[in-house]
Design brief:
Strand content: 25-35%
CATH architecture of the largest domain: Alpha-Beta Complex
Largest sheet: 8 strands, mixed
Radius of gyration: 19 Å
CATH class of the largest domain: Alpha Beta
Low-confidence stretches: none
Number of strands: 8
Order of helices and strands: HHHEEEEHEEEHE
Structural class: alpha+beta
Helix content: 25-40%
Length: about 200
């Protein structure tokens, strides 16, 4: 299905949000509010989500519109990669989540790995910064950058968290069903390339 409508809705919402932040003229504010309503109408028309929920989650931010940042921790052990099973969809993902205000990307990776897998880790290096629009993820209303940070285990043990139901290391040719909102098979395959070639350059986009 052509998803141009989703890109248009996101762009309209970003223009409206930025305009509402910096606009001074009362008539301009009204126009930006109307643009925001149009972006909500587009999503409501093409999805099964009601307008109230869309307004709260998609069209309620303020300030200059910027992409969201998702941090994923990459941990290897005996040539296997650490994955956690997400309770929300029953599929597997590299441990991680949204970046947090007040924490650096490395600190987020360490925190998320601990919370979702039970392992204490130390950050090693940045592996990739990817824009989700260039990768085979399901469509969504946000523009998202993904950062993959390699970490090494320093302690702890495998334990599930509030959002996870299982913790396991997998070989590259025996991956489970992946949570495609969080990571794609191609992305996990790429992480193994860093295991094979430690000097591999950071990937952008």
């Amino acid at each position: 299905m052509d998803m141009k409508w989703l890109e248009w809705a996101k762009q309209i919402q970003a223009i409206a949000q930025t305009g509402l932040t910096y606009g001074k003229d009362v008539y301009d504010i009204e126009r930006y509010e109307e643009l925001r309503r149009i972006s909500v109408d587009i999503l409501a028309n093409y999805t099964s989500v009601n307008k109230e929920k869309i307004s709260l989650t998609f069209a309620s931010d303020s300030g200059y519109a910027t992409p969201k940042v998702d941090i994923r921790g990459v941990v290897f052990k005996e040539n296997k990669i650490l994955l956690v099973r997400e309770k929300i969809d029953g599929a597997w993902a590299l441990p991680g989540g949204w970046s947090d205000i007040g924490l650096s990307p490395s600190e987020v990776a360490v925190k998320e790995i601990k919370e979702e897998s039970g392992f204490d880790v130390a950050p090693v290096r940045l592996l990739a910064v990817l824009d989700k629009k260039f990768h085979d993820h399901p469509p969504e209303p946000y523009h998202i950058y993904k950062m993959f940070i390699q970490c090494e285990i320093t302690g702890g043990k495998a334990e599930t968290g509030v959002e996870t139901s299982a913790v396991q290391f997998f070989e590259r040719h025996d991956l489970p069903e992946l949570s495609l909102e969080r990571n794609t098979p191609e992305q996990v395959k790429t992480m193994f390339e860093f295991l094979d070639h430690p000097a591999k350059e950071v990937i952008l986009d």
